[in-house]
From TrEMBL:
This is Orphan protein. It comes from the Bacteria.
Length: 387
């Protein structure tokens, strides 16, 4: 372990990496006796590999029983620093890596980052993107805006809606979105669905987005706005989240944005990413690459730290493994609005493999879905009963 801890001092680290290394050492020094008891056989010669190895040693192989209670927050901070460092180092490769390297990284990490599930989200949003927010059913609005709730039927929403920058903590934003969706439609209308997006288009979006909050006690913030933009044009806008902003800004070599830096977001994030070689040269030489090109501004999200637990921590997977009939705290099934139930059922019944006699049970299926039963679960039950 001692050899591992001192090995970065022999690496050719840049100024940012050296500072990260020193900060990590400060936390590690308070855990030195515990860390020294961990056996280390892998000694990477690069800083990214070093961060992964130290994270593994301090997270998966350290003896937690020997830690004092006051050491646990220190260990948590060490893990957070290492995870942030890994995200920074992986994102930093975007500055210089060509398109084949970027697409290969995504493909090689597809299982860890739950790529198939994330692409299901982007495909779903692509199919509802032209619809006005005010006309969306509540579930679709959650999918577009990035907030998970237990009302999302995993048989229909077979993805975690919080991939690509969760907005679950932006309670004021979601209240405004629920109350005045048309105001956010007016803002998004400034961003064309196809073709180039100019700085003027973006500036008009910002003006209209800020106006949506006039007369409200809620403050308009940047992160949820970038989620809306990214879902509107995933080939142009990269979403940001407060928890990952440090790593992204450091990787781009910019001063950290604050939650009102709308102007700097365009200049320092959007324009910086658009200027990168891989972004300009992105081309679809196979099916996966073709999908990635359509959402190329989202690709930085795949370079944040992920591990073997990331895919299983998806809200979709968690919801899928819960009892099929979700309940409220009072123990009653959560009901859906009739409009939502009708739309979700009609989508499912439109599938080619649904027999006509099952389609004729539409009203009965809608009734069960309104009561909180899953769409696919209800249709499957009907097929079992009626063949």
């Amino acid at each position: 372990m001692k050899k591992l801890l001192i090995s970065p001092s022999k690496m050719a680290l840049g100024e940012q990496e050296s500072q990260i290394y020193q900060n990590i050492l400060k936390q590690a020094s308070e855990l030195s006796l515990n860390l020294m008891a961990v056996k280390v056989e892998n000694h990477p010669e690069d800083f990214l590999g070093w961060c992964y190895e130290l994270l593994s040693a301090s997270k998966d192989r350290i003896n937690y029983d020997l830690l004092e209670p006051q050491q646990l927050p220190v260990l948590k901070k060490l893990h957070d620093q290492l995870i942030s460092a890994i995200s920074f180092l992986q994102l930093k490769t975007l500055r210089v890596a060509p398109w084949p390297v970027i697409s290969m990284f995504v493909e090689q990490h597809k299982d860890i980052i739950a790529l198939e599930e994330q692409l299901r989200l982007t495909t779903y949003v692509q199919n509802i993107r032209k619809q006005a927010l005010k006309d969306m059913i509540p579930e679709d609005l959650l999918a577009f805006s990035g907030k998970h709730t237990a009302t999302l039927d995993p048989s229909t929403y077979n993805f975690d809606v919080e991939w690509f920058a969760s907005t679950k903590s932006a309670k004021g934003f979601h209240q405004m979105l629920a109350d005045l969706p048309g105001a956010f439609d007016d803002a998004l209308a400034n961003i064309p669905l196809e073709g180039d997006v100019s700085q003027g288009d973006y500036q008009q979006f910002v003006v209209t987005y800020l106006l949506a909050f006039n007369g409200s006690d809620e403050k308009p913030t940047l992160a949820p706005a970038t989620r809306l933009l990214a879902m509107r044009r995933p080939d142009v806008f990269t979403p940001i989240s407060n928890s990952r902003l440090d790593a992204l800004c450091a990787a781009l070599g910019i001063t950290k944005l604050n939650n009102r830096d709308f102007e700097r977001y365009w200049q320092d994030v959007v324009q910086s990413i658009h200027a990168m070689s891989w972004f300009k040269m992105a081309t679809g030489s196979n099916e996966l690459e073709a999908q990635l090109v359509n959402i190329k501004a989202l690709l930085p999200c795949f370079f944040y730290y992920a591990d073997k637990n990331t895919a299983d921590n998806s809200n979709y997977i968690k919801l899928l493994n819960k009892p099929k009939r979700s309940t409220t705290s009072a123990g009653k099934p959560q009901r859906r609005g009739k409009e939502s139930a009708e739309i979700l059922v009609d989508r499912a019944l439109a599938a080619d493999d649904i027999p006509e006699h099952i389609r004729s049970k539409r009203d009965s299926i809608i009734s069960e879905v309104q009561k909180g039963r899953g769409v696919n679960e209800t249709i499957s039950l009907m097929r079992t009963i009626f063949g």
